[in-house]
């Protein structure tokens, strides 16, 4: 038996030495793959989160221009919105990171070199699985804790804005029905000095009489807490119709105050309520599901929110496995190809998930089936493609995607040539 002397004088058999050497080599390869996943993951995470945040630009502009919301408050709203976006961004980033990393390795012939050295595709999976599971746990944290807490924090911020600017609910040339039994219409609203022009009010709080108030100008008055609890009108007219007596009378006034306490009370109730299932903790959601079991619409909505908290994190592992055979077979170093492929796959996944959620809400089947079906389909497809790629058999899905990508590229290039010639 051949023995090898180590540096500290211990003898190893040749077989033991080969096993230790191969394990060290695989550890180095795994570390290389894991490190290769990190840069594209964070780049895609930052890029996709920015894209999602850009969808809120219109709302942010309205808050700044129309309601004078401070930049600090806008920054907090965006910060608390990030957990909601990360729920969808994390699975996309994992899939794109795996896809781009393996495409780069295939394009540089690193995968071919590893296969020629006796390293199978299965031996390259541990760092990808660990990476996907870590992202799965991070997404689970966002769905169970981050997203509900973020929505509650946004609600608290909205409450503070309303507490300092109750007039935020008033809009020019819009009928406002926030006050019980009172309809308010204002032609012009100046939110800086809280002055109103051309005010029309219909008051139906008295069941025996209907009052209509018209005034050319008005002013929102705040109390000691900063709430705009009263509306003061100037130089207007009141028309009152008594239904029982079938009579009408009109009176003029120089100053007339209307109490808006109903609006304040409704905002307080809204602040302390958790009617939205997405704001509930896991324990609260379970109790809520039991309570609304006899109400199909509420019951199905609550079940959808509950299963989404687990099905979306599971997509990190499903899409990560699916990206392995795709990245190995595509053999391209172009990031644009991997980005387009990853976005196409995630759009298909999201369409299936949305369809499953809609049909689950309508009661065609249990909501869990619709929400978990994309993970099951993509998981089975990914395992089949992985086995074929490991056995070096052709993947028809990859060939189909290549043909579709080539066709789209030809069409786009043809359209660009015609556009340039024109």
Protein traits:
single chain; 8 strands; alpha+beta; six-stranded antiparallel β-sheet; 422 residues; elongated
What this model shows, in words?
The protein is of the alpha+beta class and 422 residues long. The protein has a domain at 169-272. The chain is built from eleven helices and eight strands. Helix 1 packs across helix 3. The model is unreliable at 1-6 (pLDDT under 50).
Major β-sheet strand ordering: 3-4-5-6-7-8
Give the helices and strands as they follow along the chain: EEHHHHHEEEEEEHHHHHH
Largest sheet: 6 strands, antiparallel
**Quick check: average pLDDT?**
79
Structural class: alpha+beta
What is the number of beta strands? 8
How large is the radius of gyration? 31 Å
Report low-confidence residues grouped into runs of 5 or more.
1-6
Q: Approximately how much helix is present in the residues?
A: 55-70%
Distance between the termini: 80 Å
Give the percentage of residues in beta strands. Answer: 15-25%
Tally of helical runs: 11
Shape: elongated
